[in-house]
Amino acid sequence: MLASGTLLVAALTCLSVMIIMSVWRQRRMLEKMPPGPTPLPFIGNLLELDTEKFRDSLLKIREQYGPVFTIHVGPRPAVVLWGYDAVKEALIDQAEEFSGRGQQGFFDWFFKGYGEDDSRGGRIRPGRCVSAGSMLFEMFHSVMKHLPGSHHQAYKEMQGLEDFVARKVEQNQRTLDPNSPRDFIDSFLIRMQQ
User: Fold this and answer.
1) 92-118 residue pLDDT tens
2) Most exposed: 11, 30, 59, 179, by fewest CB within 10 Å?
3) Alpha-carbon distance values, 151 to 52, 106, 133 (Å)
4) Residues 142-188 pLDDT 10s
5) How far apart are CA 99 and CA 29, in angstroms?
6) Are residues 105 and 98 in contact, defined by beta-carbon separation less than 8 angstroms?
7) What parts of the sequence cross the membrane (predicted)?
8) Could you tell me the pTM of the whole model?
9) H or E segment to which residue 30 belongs
10) Are 75 and 19 in contact (CB under 8 A)?
11) Could you give the 3-state DSSP secondary structure of residue 124?
C-alpha cells in the first residue's frame, strides 16, 4: 500500500514537472513568435481548430490576430500567413528568416538527420508520408519514441541495414583494388581517395 502511494506521488510529481517545463518552454518560445492564441501544454491549439471546418477556424483566429499568426499543433508552433501581402512579405521581403524547414521529429530520429541535400544545402528527409501514426509521432515524438509500437521495428530494420552497409564498406576497404572496381562501393571509395 505504501509503495503504491509513493509510486503515485512520484508519477504525479514527474507529470507536474513535465507540464511546468512545457509551459515555461512555450512561454520563452512565444516571445519570438508572431501573436496567436495561447496554447495548452502538449496539445497546443488543437481544441480551437475544427478539423471539419479548418479554414473557418483559421479565419476566426486571423480576425483576432491579423494576417500573420502562430498556432500550435500539439507542442509544435506553426506560423500561418494569410493573404498575398503576408506571403509576399515573408517569402520575398524577409526570405532569410523564413527559409528552411522546421524540425521533423520522426524523420530526424529515424534517419538521424541524414538525407539528400536540397538546393539550399539543407537535408531532405527521405520517405515522407502522411498517416495518422506519423502525424501522431510528429506531434508527440519526444514521448512516442519511448512507447512501444511499430516505429521501433522500422528503426531496428534501419539499424540492421546500416550495420550491413557498414560491414560491406569495411570489407571492400580491406580488399580494394583501385584499378578494378567491383561495385558502387568500390567506385565510391576510389573517388574518396582522389
Assistant:
1) 887 777 776 565 555 565 555 554 444
2) 179
3) 29, 9, 9
4) 676 777 777 677 777 778 888 888 898 899 889 888 888 888 888 88
5) 19
6) no
7) 6-24
8) 0.46
9) helix 2-30
10) no
11) strand
As a whole number of angstroms, the distance between CA 178 and CA 143 comes to: 48
The dihedral formed by the CA atoms of 24, 19, 104 and 59, expressed in degrees to the nearest 10:
-80
Cα separation, 187 vs 170, in Å, equals: 14
Position 1, amino acid? M
Alpha-carbon span 36 to 61, nearest angstrom: 7
In single-letter form, the type of residue at position 161 comes to L
Residues 6+ apart with CB under 8 A from 136: 144
Type of residue found at 118: D
* Three cell numbers, residue 182: 567491383
Residue with cell 515573408: 90
Interhelix angle 150-174/132-139, rounded to 10 degrees, is 90
CA distances from 34 to 40, 45, 47, 66 (A): 17, 15, 20, 10
Rounded to 5°, the CA angle 15-16-22 comes to: 90
Q: Residue type for 81, please?
A: L
Nearest Cα to Cα of residue 143 among 48, 74, 47? 74
If we measure between CA atoms, which residue out of 182, 127, 119, 118 comes closest to residue 157?
Answer: 127
